[in-house]
Design brief:
By secondary structure, the chain is of the alpha+beta class. It folds into two domains: 232 residues, no CATH class; 56 residues. The protein contains seven helices and 13 strands. Helix 6 runs antiparallel to helix 7. The longest helix is centred in the C-terminal third of the chain and has 42 residues. The radius of gyration is 30 Å and the shape is globular.
């Protein structure tokens, strides 16, 4: 038995370097010797605000086994950011967890059909255009206040991997049979941004919720999707507010220097004008105060 386990872990160690991993999360792996439950069916809450990105729910692993992290609308950490969801992949006899990440393109997520734009390949839920995210309402649900929408059913059909059994992992027994293409591999090798702190808090809250565990809910969690969007990442505010903060500082200096220049200029004009009309010797005497004022 020990020999079998040692051989299995040796095989896993040999296979892991062959599994492409995003740079932002390289080396962060969780392995389990049995696969996650099937993906539950749920309704996506409508997007309440512009520029929110949908992050689909997924199975994670904790102290009591697999637990469900509810899907949620998340403010993009920067303009142009797209979310690549996490996935489970079978390698070396175990199921390995690959964390999600932010990037300019959607990378490989195991071909898992999470729905709502994440149909297994790429993302069909919308595009960034002119600093604003446009939602493809052929697959995404948006609220009445969202105006940046369009309809494209063809991309949904092209990017869909049929998953009738709602399998939540790639490879292994009865898993999804889809390997990353050249474009997805190039996206995976790029540098990415880790989940926001509020995404981490969201996942931690699910981990601490006993009702989220499959052993307690039979694979049908009561909270499958959050009705409210997550908060905006605090780290993005310095990126946007740091520039305005620098502008007032830069603008304040000219504001102070302009009155100083005006005050010095007016007395200089008045003193020079009066002496020119009255006496020629007074400008020489008044030139000293001008030097003192400049000091």
């Amino acid at each position: 038995m020990k020999v079998f386990r040692s051989a299995r872990w040796l095989l896993l160690a040999l296979l892991l370097p062959l599994i492409p991993a995003p740079k932002a999360n390289a080396g962060v792996f969780i392995s389990v010797n049995f696969g996650p439950p099937v993906l539950p069916v749920y309704v996506q809450p409508p997007c309440p605000q512009p520029n929110l990105m949908w992050t689909p729910g997924y199975w994670a692993y904790g102290p009591e086994g697999y637990y469900w992290v509810p899907g949620a609308w998340v403010p993009a950490p920067y303009v142009g950011a797209l979310w690549t969801p996490p996935y489970w992949g079978f390698a070396g006899g175990v199921y390995v967890f690959h964390p999600g990440y932010w990037g300019p393109q959607v990378g490989y997520y195991g071909g898992i059909n999470y729905g709502f734009g994440y149909m297994g390949v790429g993302f069909a839920g919308g595009i960034w255009s002119g600093g604003v995210f446009r939602y493809n309402t052929a697959i995404m649900h948006v609220g009445p206040g969202i105006r940046n929408v369009y309809v494209d059913r063809s991309i949904v059909q092209r990017n869909t991997i049929v998953n009738r059994g709602r399998v939540a992992y790639n490879g292994g027994p009865n898993g999804i049979r889809y390997q990353p293409n050249a474009q997805e591999r190039s996206y995976m090798s790029q540098r990415h941004t880790a989940p926001t702190s509020f995404q981490t808090q969201h996942a931690t809250a699910a981990r601490n919720d006993r009702s989220a565990y499959a052993r307690n809910n039979g694979g049908r969690p009561s909270n499958m999707a959050s009705s409210r969007p997550l908060q905006r990442e605090a780290q993005t505010r310095p990126a946007t507010t740091a520039r305005p903060a620098a502008r007032p500082g830069n603008a304040a200096r000219p504001a102070e220097s302009r009155p100083a220049q005006q005050r010095e200029a007016r007395p200089a004009q008045q003193h020079q004008a009066r002496p020119a009309q009255q006496h020629q010797s007074r400008p020489q005497r008044e030139s000293k105060p001008e030097a003192k004022d400049r000091k």
